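Run log // design_07
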C-alpha cells in the first residue's frame, strides 16, 4: 500500500486517488531564463520517481508541468525587473528567444537524467487566456482589488491563508520590508495581473488593461484547465511552500470553493559542500559541469536516489565519484547477464523493492534490494527479468548498460581511437604472454598504463579499464 508524506498534514498518508486507477499530478516547472543547475534537477527526479512508481503500480498517470516563460520577477517585489527580460538584454535576444533557448536546455537535461517528459508541458505564454479566466472568477468571488501595480489577491478574504505553511502572519507583518506598493492591503497580498508597465516586452490585452500575469496564477490556471478543479498530487521544491504553493491554494480554492490538492510532495534542497548553492559562491553546478569532469548524468540520478527526496542532499565531488563507481559496478554486472533473457521475476526481491517504495518512495532502500538481488545466487535470467522490472522505477537504463558505459568514456574525454589503440596493445600483450615473452608483455603493460588505462587480469583473460570506470 503506497504511503506518501503529505506536506499539508505533515504525515505519511495512504494514497487514494480521486478516480480509481487514474492519478493526476501537477509539477511546478522551471523559469526558463538560465541554465538549470543540479539542484533544480533534484525536484524533477522526485516527481519522475513518483510518476514511474505510480505507473508501475498500474495507475494511468496524467502529469502536467508548467514552463514559466513570462513575468517572473527578480525578487518577490512585484515591480522588480523581470528575470527573462534582464537576461534577454544581457544576451541581446528577445525574451521569447531566451525562453526557448533555456527551455530546450532544461528538456535536454531531463532527458540526460532519464527523467520522463510529463504528459503535458504547459507554457505560461500559451495559457494567458486561462489565467485571465481564473482572475475573472476570483474577481466575481470578491478576492481581487486593484492598486497602481495591478490586480492584487486579497489574502484577508481567504481565511485559511496561513494554514498550509503554518505562517505566523502577525510576526511577518512586523518584519515586513517597506512595501513598494503602498496601496497593498496586506504585505503578503500578491499580484495576479501586472499593469502600468508599458516597457515590459511581453504583454497581453485583458479586461483590466494591457499587462502580464503574476507568477503564481499560471500554476492554478493550468491545474484547473488541464487537470480539473481537484488534483491528486502536486509536487515542487520546499522553497515553494511558503509563498508559491500557499498562493496557489488561495487562488484555486478561492475560485472553486473546493479542496485543491490531496497530496503535496516537496523535494528538499541540494546543498553543495554543506552550503547553499548560489551564483555568488560559484557552486551552482550544471549537468555540463559534471559531464566535463567525467561524470555521467545517470550517476547524479543514482546518487540522489540514494538519498531521501524530502531531505536536503549534500553534493560533494567525492559523493558523485563514489556514486559513479557504484553505478558502474551495477552496469557491469548487468551487462554481463544481459543476454540471459526469458527469466521470471523473483517475487521475494520485487516485494522488498515495492515495500521500500510504498514507504514514501524510499529509493535508498529500493537500491539496497537491487544490490541484494545482484549479489544473490538467483539464476541470471531471473535476476535480469527482476532487474528490468526494478529499472522501470529507478530509471538507471540498466537494459542498455553497455551503451551507458561507453557513453561514460566519452564524457571522460577518451576518444574511440584511444580506446582502439589500447585494445590493440592489449592483444599484443596477450600474444607476448602466450609466447612467454614476459619482458615484452610488461613493456606493453607500462605503455597501456601510461595512456591512462588500468589492466585487469582475470580467469577469462585480460581487460582494460579506464581509471576505475568502464570496460572497453
Ligand atoms: Zn507552480
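design_07 sequence
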Amino acid at each position: 500500500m503506497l504511503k506518501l508524506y503529505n506536506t499539508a498534514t505533515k504525515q505519511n498518508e495512504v494514497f487514494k486517488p480521486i478516480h480509481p486507477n487514474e492519478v493526476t499530478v501537477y509539477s511546478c516547472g522551471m523559469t526558463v531564463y538560465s541554465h538549470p543547475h543540479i539542484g533544480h534537477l533534484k525536484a524533477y527526479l522526485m516527481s519522475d520517481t513518483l510518476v514511474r512508481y505510480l505507473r508501475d503500480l498500474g495507475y494511468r498517470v496524467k502529469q502536467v508541468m508548467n514552463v514559466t516563460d513570462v513575468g517572473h520577477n527578480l525578487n518577490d517585489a512585484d515591480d522588480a525587473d523581470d528575470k527573462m527580460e534582464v537576461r534577454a538584454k544581457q544576451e541581446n535576444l528577445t525574451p521569447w528567444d531566451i525562453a526557448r533557448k533555456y527551455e530546450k536546455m532544461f528538456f535536454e537535461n531531463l532527458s540526460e537524467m532519464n527523467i520522463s517528459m510529463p504528459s503535458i508541458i504547459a507554457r505560461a505564454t500559451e495559457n494567458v487566456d486561462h489565467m485571465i479566466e481564473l482572475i475573472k472568477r476570483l474577481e466575481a468571488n470578491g478576492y481581487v482589488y486593484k492598486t497602481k501595480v495591478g490586480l492584487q489577491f486579497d489574502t484577508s478574504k481567504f481565511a485559511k491563508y496561513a494554514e498550509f505553511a503554518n505562517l505566523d502572519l502577525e510576526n511577518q507583518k512586523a518584519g515586513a520590508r517597506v512595501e513598494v506598493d503602498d496601496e497593498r492591503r496586506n504585505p503578503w497580498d500578491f499580484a495576479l495581473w501586472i499593469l502600468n508597465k508599458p516597457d515590459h516586452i511581453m504583454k497581453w490585452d485583458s479586461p483590466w488593461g494591457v499587462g502580464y500575469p503574476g507568477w503564481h496564477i499560471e500554476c492554478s490556471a493550468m491545474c484547473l484547465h488541464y487537470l480539473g478543479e481537484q488534483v491528486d498530487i502536486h509536487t515542487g521544491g520546499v522553497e515553494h511552500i511558503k509563498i508559491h504553493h500557499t498562493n496557489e491554494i488561495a487562488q484555486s480554492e478561492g475560485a472553486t470553493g473546493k479542496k485543491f490538492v490531496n497530496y503535496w510532495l516537496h523535494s528538499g534542497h541540494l546543498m553543495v559542500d554543506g552550503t547553499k548553492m548560489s551564483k555568488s559562491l560559484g557552486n551552482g553546478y550544471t549537468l555540463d559541469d559534471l559531464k566535463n569532469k567525467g561524470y555521467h548524468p545517470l550517476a547524479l540520478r543514482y546518487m540522489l536516489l540514494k538519498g531521501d527526496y524530502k531531505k536536503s542532499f549534500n553534493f560533494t565531488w567525492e559523493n558523485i565519484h563514489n556514486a559513479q563507481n557504484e553505478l558502474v559496478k551495477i552496469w557491469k554486472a548487468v551487462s554481463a547477464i544481459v543476454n540471459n533473457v526469458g527469466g521470471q521475476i523473483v517475487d521475494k526481491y520485487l516485494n522488498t523493492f515495492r515495500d521500500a517504495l510504498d514507504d514514501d518512495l524510499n529509493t535508498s532502500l529500493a537500491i539496497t534490494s537491487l544490490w541484494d538481488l545482484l549479489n544473490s545466487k538467483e539464476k541470471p535470467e531471473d535476476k535480469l527479468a527482476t532487474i528490468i522490472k526494478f529499472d522501470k522505477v529507478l530509471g538507471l537504463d540498466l537494459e542498455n548498460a553497455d551503451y551507458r558505459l561507453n557513453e561514460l568514456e566519452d564524457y571522460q574525454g577518451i576518444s574511440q581511437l584511444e580506446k582502439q589503440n589500447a585494445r590493440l596493445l592489449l592483444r599484443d600483450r596477450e600474444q607476448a604472454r602466450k609466447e612467454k615473452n614476459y619482458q615484452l608483455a610488461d613493456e606493453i603493460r607500462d605503455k597501456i598504463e601510461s595512456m591512462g588505462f588500468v589492466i585487469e587480469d582475470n580467469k577469462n583473460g585480460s581487460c582494460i579499464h579506464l581509471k576505475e570506470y568502464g570496460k572497453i
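The mean pLDDT is 90.
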